[in-house]
Amino acid sequence: METKRKDPTKRFGTRYGRMLKDRLAKVEVEYCRKKNKCPYCCKNKVKRLAVGIWFCRGCDTKFTGKAYSLFKKIVTKEQEEKPSEPEVIEAMKYKCFDCNKKVTLAGKRIRCPYCGSKMLYKARDTVTKVRAR
User: Fold this and answer.
1) Confidence of residue 123 (pLDDT cuts 50, 70, 90)
2) Rounded CA separation 78/122 (Å)
3) So where are the chain's domains?
């Protein structure tokens, strides 16, 4: 005989897939279904009424918060594994098509600082000549 598991995603039945329902169950159990601490009376009697609407049964106040939690930021599995690293933009060397000067670009702005032209091409050190047949 099977034991009944208390699962908040049983209401979905066979729809939406196992992984999505597991993620939703984790969020609901850890953040929504537990009693939270009220910012006004400091009692653990705050329940979630709807998305972003919270109600304290201790002091009878209704207030807004985040969708799934009052104060905490919810960290997903992907964010835990990959720490954010600053992007390193390497300076590229180009040549301006109009004024034929060498330009080094490191940012997102792609313009020649001398003439303002947007037509740049990569400067090649070695020239390769190909004979046509």
Assistant:
1) confident
2) 37
3) 10-81, 92-122
